[in-house]
Amino acid sequence: MAGCLPSNPWVTDDDAYWAMNAPTVAVPTKLRVERWGFSFRELLDDPMGRAHFMDFLQKEFSAENLSFWEACEELRFGGQAQIPTLVDTVYQQFLAPGAAHWVNIDSRTMERTLEGLHQPHRYVLDDAQLHIYMLMKKDSYPRFMKSDMYQGLLAEAVIPLETKRRVFPFMRKPRLSSPSPALPPTSGEPSAAGSAAGGDEES
Description:
The longest helix is centred in the last third of the chain and has 21 residues. The chain contains eleven helices and no strands. The chain is mainly α. One of its GO terms (cellular component) is plasma membrane.
């Protein structure tokens, strides 16, 4: 059983693992950066991965897509009382004609979104959010994974040393070996067959 990288804080009382995997760190671990390549969702779920992806999108002049997705997430999980205000803010910032950070969604999705705005609720922008999500997943995400920015993050990532301590110290007990009946007896020890034969001769 291998040790944890860099340690299991619950066993070793060493918080290095938590410190290296905090939401934001100076330099992420290589395992963390590699995990962003597993799926687009893995990248978005990691605050640090999402921040680097935002930097990449800004260089491609498409950062409004991720900003819109984040605004929709805030609407979905925000407080109920703020929903009408948040819906109007997101619409004015990203969807309204002449919006400062206008996002490009198809006409059918826009029609469904505009119909839902008459009775705003926390899921009213789901169709538009899904459209932008799929756009980033199919277009921007593959380019980010092949970009010099991501390759640089991989090259600079930290590879923590594996802890020397076992996860379960009580498993260190040596195993006691028992003699196998198929093996010949060691010198000085009579065999079971010899003992039996000697007993017959004495009788």
